[in-house]
Amino acid sequence: MKNILSFLTVCFALGIIYVYYFRISFWPCYILAVALISACLLLINKKLIFDILFLILAFLLGALCLKNAYTANKSGISGYAYYKNDTIYTIKGFINSRPVFYDGSNSFIFRAEELGFDGNRYKTCGDILVYSNVQDKLFYGEELVLLGKLKKPHRLFKGRVPVIMRIRNSSALVRINKNKGNLIRKLAFSLKDRMEMVFKECLSSLSAIINNAMILGEKKRIPAVVYDSMVKSGTVHIMVVSGFHVGVVAFISGVSLKILRIPRKIRYGGIILCLIIYCLVTGVSTPVLRATVMGIFIATGYFMQRDSDITNSFFLAALFILIINPKDLFSISFQLSFASVVSIIYLYPFLKALFRIERIKIKFFKGIIEGGLVSFSAWLGTAGFIAYYFKIFSPVSVLANIFIIPVASLIILSGLSLVIISFILPPLTAAFAAFNEMSVFMLLKFNSFFINLPFAYIYL
Question: For residue 329, what is the DSSP state?
Answer without folding.
Answer: G
